[in-house]
């Protein structure tokens, strides 16, 4: 895919072993346990749990059943964020309420949680609980996955339902507009909720050192080693799985139903040295990648290269057609990305990566289809031109693409047959 980690795509740093202790020596952290007492978080009467492995028989004694009034906050699977049955849309929320994990510094209105000493009655800024939602997506050298972020959205939906003020901390490499962990340390949170992924590694251990004033809860996580300092630093763990034991359903499927976004296939031309100094591939792909990252769409890399031994590639043209036909639009700098999209009735946003235009532009003329060109090797497509072509492809272009798919194929096959039926010249 175009772009890279240096351009804020949320990828881990090169060479970084995600969620492991590789290259990260252990650091001392606070470990709440019965054998090493830790002062409880301010104004938190909650006893500190011993996080050694537990079985179904001992779970009831270590985690007593919640009362009816606070059952929601103890539930490892948030009810408020579950997807409605039969594909129905989730009900709309009142104005001012975040529909998922907070993207920026927006916080939610505080509401009382009702009777019974629930989480909303803990004292924080304004006399109410203030929850900081974190995960592997919060670490500068971590990564954001659809599962981790979806789990956070499910938790935030439940906090919304309970009327609990909350914020989400993001890696500045993924969502630079949001608050980061460094900023969050000064924002007066009463509770830290770590969502999804393994509770191990130096990044998780550092949370205990950097947020000692918070009650720290891990939910929907994997506990590989309950004696790891990263795990023992939490006051409460509500795991999805513990090494060697059964598990609970993951949180991610409980995220609120998402919006409809177009599926965009991305077909990138390889380097084409035959064009020499006219090659503008690097500049075109760099600018096109940055532009595409700003579009609200689901990007799917498509490779026209076939391979019968690689399980990640299509093995024949029918398989590639099946992929292309399921997209709403194809963005391409490759000739066959353009024509195979049109073959399947899918509009193509095509850019010729050769200065002045070459074979992609020529196919545009042959198919009567718009293709953007660039003036020089260091130039890229103009964002305004890309925006206009995107709008056309998402509207009139859909009908035009279906019409192209119904048109006759290339006349070159007929010309080939005529050539084969012509006697070969003598002496050659």
TrEMBL record:
Q: Where is this region: Disordered?
A: 1-125
The superkingdom of the source organism is Bacteria
- What segments bear the compositional bias annotation Gly residues? 114-125
Q: Which Pfam families match?
A: PS_pyruv_trans
**Protein name, entry field:** Polysaccharide pyruvyl transferase domain-containing protein
Residue intervals of the Polysaccharide pyruvyl transferase domain = 315-352
Any signal peptide, and if so, which residues? none
Show the ranges annotated as biased composition (Low complexity).
83-96
Compositional bias (Basic and acidic residues): 18-34
